């Protein structure tokens, strides 16, 4: 093989590097896996011909055909349950819920069947499926289109709940979710669907689930977040650095099961923790993280754990959504508060 | 006004309440061997049922839903399905499960509070018992979609009660089955009661079968205590499904002769006279009469069958009672394919606690 041919092969192996947004990375991961695993099928409302309302599935029907890319009737409970039946047959369905606000009709199927199938049949049947849903506020969407209710799913044994916060992690984590032999609720932060682009190698390489990602190392405070709030958390970290405060930023990524180890190691080093999430505070995943730190690392703490979250109220319509969402200043203030102690 | 479409719902019945043929019987009735096997199976299931209720009453089994009055339908389902078809059951399909290959011991384990009761050595692709009402209908169309995607000549039979047809799961699933032309047979076992709610206030439609029409499917009513009617309807619907002609809904009309479950007391809401009348239509007795009248069954055979069934059931009960519970750690071992690191601590604590309190291994 001559040098240029070898180079072409190497390039293909390494995967074409593309500059993509988060939603394009989702599309890339779906296309890669459908290309390489004939068991992967996608289903949902408006996902085939229209390519999804956010275009996450655009082009898939043309490439893989309507048998593997299915527009369903408008019934979320049906989508959740149909995917379960498919999964018990060895397919790997990726079902899209158009918005997280509409996933609740499928709750019974997700909680009472998808999460339990392996356990209740003692492994005879299982559900290797992914439920995708865009979530979170900040895009001036109508009522029911902006909530962050990830904690509802994190509370359910048998489910994995995975949330990417960048194009690279969207690609790698979605591949891992599809290949995972158990059900995964994959929540996509739609506020950052197109906020940034990143170079992503389309090489089919998955990223590990069940682990936190340390995005920035630091010594004074551990900042813990996931999803779209990672954006503000990183911006806050930059501002704090200008003030001479060194922060460690951790993207939880898999909010259930929770990688407590990484969080505890970081808090052992910094002695301070600030948790940032868009969801309501009451019973949120931040509460579980705070409790875990308090239980296992109380003596490492030099200050109380602080949460920067949405309010315990109904997500306001978009004229007031910015007043609800945690902002960079809120995170900076929280860090200043714990540093002062 | 112009009439655009006309719809109809048929019903069939071949045997009267006493087992006397009302006219020509369907071709299935020519298979005497199969008819005798069906009767023997119904008696076995009825024996199993009364024994399981007795076990529950003496603290040896958990809450259990009696199959009394549903034996004919389940037997016809179990006999008509091909081995490679998939059964998607509700929770009163004992007769079908056993014919599919589930053992009596496994059935007892399930209702006796042991998850191994759904691990099934045979019929590995059949869905487990579904307790949340009608949820299984969505799984049925998912399984059927998988067959269609892979181009396999297989079909699904999905059972659901009359109460279940009020739920979105049923309506959404028959709707999809119609839209996608899926190989599914929905068998609605209309036993007139959803716990204490009678059929009359479950739904305002004249029949349940007509719900099929709104989904673009044929709906057919059969006498659920007439073995020949049920068998013919299910075989025909399965033939359609296998032949690429899509899904069907069969409403099999019967009566729940027992309580909803052992935790229920139907005398609170049901008239004794109504129950007495329902017993007169009993499908098991009806088939026995038919076999007797046609010279294929006698008192000695009946006596022998009863004894055989009792022995079979007793053996299964002994096997069930002899099984030790799983170690407590089993509650975590099947949650995921591989237990996530985050849960190792909890599993270890569970094992340690069990070891300390029982002096046993704990399965760790």
Automatic annotation (TrEMBL), chain B:
<comment type="subunit">
    <text>Heterodimer of an alpha and a beta chain.</text>
</comment>
<keyword id="KW-0560">Oxidoreductase</keyword>
<dbReference type="GO" id="GO:0004739">
    <property type="term" value="F:pyruvate dehydrogenase (acetyl-transferring) activity"/>
</dbReference>
<dbReference type="InterPro" id="IPR029061">
    <property type="entry name" value="THDP-binding"/>
</dbReference>
<keyword id="KW-0786">Thiamine pyrophosphate</keyword>
<dbReference type="InterPro" id="IPR017596">
    <property type="entry name" value="PdhA/BkdA"/>
</dbReference>
<dbReference type="Pfam" id="PF00676">
    <property type="entry name" value="E1_dh"/>
</dbReference>
<dbReference type="InterPro" id="IPR050771">
    <property type="entry name" value="Alpha-ketoacid_DH_E1_comp"/>
</dbReference>
<protein>
    <recommendedName>
        <fullName>Pyruvate dehydrogenase E1 component subunit alpha</fullName>
        <ecNumber>1.2.4.1</ecNumber>
    </recommendedName>
</protein>
<feature type="domain" description="Dehydrogenase E1 component">
    <location>
        <begin position="39"/>
        <end position="319"/>
    </location>
</feature>
<dbReference type="GO" id="GO:0009083">
    <property type="term" value="P:branched-chain amino acid catabolic process"/>
</dbReference>
<keyword id="KW-0670">Pyruvate</keyword>
<comment type="function">
    <text>The pyruvate dehydrogenase complex catalyzes the overall conversion of pyruvate to acetyl-CoA and CO(2). It contains multiple copies of three enzymatic components: pyruvate dehydrogenase (E1), dihydrolipoamide acetyltransferase (E2) and lipoamide dehydrogenase (E3).</text>
</comment>
<dbReference type="InterPro" id="IPR001017">
    <property type="entry name" value="DH_E1"/>
</dbReference>
């Amino acid at each position: 093989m001559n040098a240029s041919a070898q180079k072409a092969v190497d390039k293909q192996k390494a995967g074409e590097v593309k500059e993509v947004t988060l939603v394009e990375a989702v599309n890339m991961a779906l296309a890669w896996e459908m290309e390489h695993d004939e068991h992967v099928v996608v289903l949902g409302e408006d996902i085939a011909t229209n390519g999804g309302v956010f275009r996450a599935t655009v082009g898939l029907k043309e490439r893989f055909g309507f048998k593997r890319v299915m527009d369903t009737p408008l019934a979320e409970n049906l989508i959740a349950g149909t995917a379960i039946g498919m999964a018990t047959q060895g397919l790997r369905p990726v079902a899209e819920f158009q918005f997280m606000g509409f996933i609740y009709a499928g709750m019974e199927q997700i909680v009472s069947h998808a999460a339990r199938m392996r356990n209740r049949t003692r492994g005879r049947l299982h559900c290797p499926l992914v439920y995708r849903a865009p979530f979170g506020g900040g895009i001036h969407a109508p009522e029911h289109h902006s909530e962050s209710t990830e904690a509802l799913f994190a509370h359910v044994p048998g489910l994995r709940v995975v949330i990417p916060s960048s194009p690279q992690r969207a690609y790698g984590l979605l591949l891992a979710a599809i290949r995972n032999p158990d059900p995964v609720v994959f929540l996509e932060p739609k506020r950052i669907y197109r906020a940034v682009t990143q170079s992503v190698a389309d090489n089919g390489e998955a990223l590990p689930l069940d682990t936190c990602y340390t995005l920035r190392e630091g010594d004074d405070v551990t900042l813990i977040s996931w999803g779209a709030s990672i954006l503000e958390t990183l911006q806050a970290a930059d501002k704090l650095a200008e003030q001479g405060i060194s922060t460690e930023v951790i993207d939880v990524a898999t909010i259930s099961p929770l990688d407590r180890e990484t969080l505890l190691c970081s808090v052992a080093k910094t002695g301070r923790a600030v948790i940032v999430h868009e969801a309501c505070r009451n019973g949120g995943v931040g509460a579980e993280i705070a409790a875990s730190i308090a239980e296992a690392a109380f003596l490492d703490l030099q200050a109380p754990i602080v949460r920067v979250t949405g309010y315990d109220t109904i997500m306001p319509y978009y004229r007031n959504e910015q007043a609800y969402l945690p902002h960079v200043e809120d995170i900076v203030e929280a860090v200043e508060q714990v540093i002062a102690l | 006004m112009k009439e655009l479409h006309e719809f109809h719902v048929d019903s069939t019945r071949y045997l009267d309440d006493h087992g006397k043929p009302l006219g020509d019987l369907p071709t299935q009735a020519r298979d005497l061997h199969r008819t005798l096997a069906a009767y023997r199976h119904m008696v076995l299931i009825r024996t199993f049922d009364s024994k399981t209720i007795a076990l529950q009453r003496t603290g040896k089994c958990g809450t259990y839903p009696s199959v009394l009055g549903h034996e004919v339908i389940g037997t016809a389902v179990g006999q008509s399905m091909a081995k490679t078809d998939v059964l998607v059951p509700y929770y009163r399909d004992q007769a079908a499960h056993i014919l599919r290959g589930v053992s009596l011991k496994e059935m007892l384990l399930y209702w006796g509070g042991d998850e191994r009761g759904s691990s099934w050595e045979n019929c590995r692709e059949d869905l487990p018992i579904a307790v949340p009402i009608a949820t299984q209908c969505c799984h049925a169309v998912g399984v059927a979609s998988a067959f269609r995607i892979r181009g396999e000549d297989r079909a699904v039979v999905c059972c659901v009660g009359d109460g279940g047809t009020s739920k979105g799961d049923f309506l959404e699933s028959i709707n999809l089955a119609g839209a996608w032309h899926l190989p599914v047979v929905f068998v609605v076992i209309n036993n007139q009661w959803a716990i204490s709610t009678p059929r009359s206030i479950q739904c305002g439609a004249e029949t349940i079968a007509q719900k099929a029409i709104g989904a673009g499917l044929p709906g057919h009513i059969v006498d659920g205590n007439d073995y020949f009617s049920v068998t013919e309807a299910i075989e025909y619907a399965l033939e359609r499904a296998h032949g690429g002609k899509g899904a069907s809904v069969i409403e099999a009309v019967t009566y729940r002769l027992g309580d909803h479950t052992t935790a229920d007391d139907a005398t609170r809401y049901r008239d004794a006279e109504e129950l007495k009348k329902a017993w007169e239509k009993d499908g098991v007795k009806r088939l026995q009469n038919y076999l007797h009248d046609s010279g294929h069954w006698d008192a000695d055979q009946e006596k022998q069958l009863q004894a055989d069934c009792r022995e079979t059931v007793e053996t299964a009960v002994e096997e069930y009672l002899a099984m030790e519970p799983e170690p407590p750690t089993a509650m975590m071992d099947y949650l995921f394919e591989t237990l996530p690191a985050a849960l190792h601590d909890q599993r270890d604590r569970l094992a340690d606690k069990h070891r300390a309190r029982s002096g046993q291994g704990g399965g760790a």
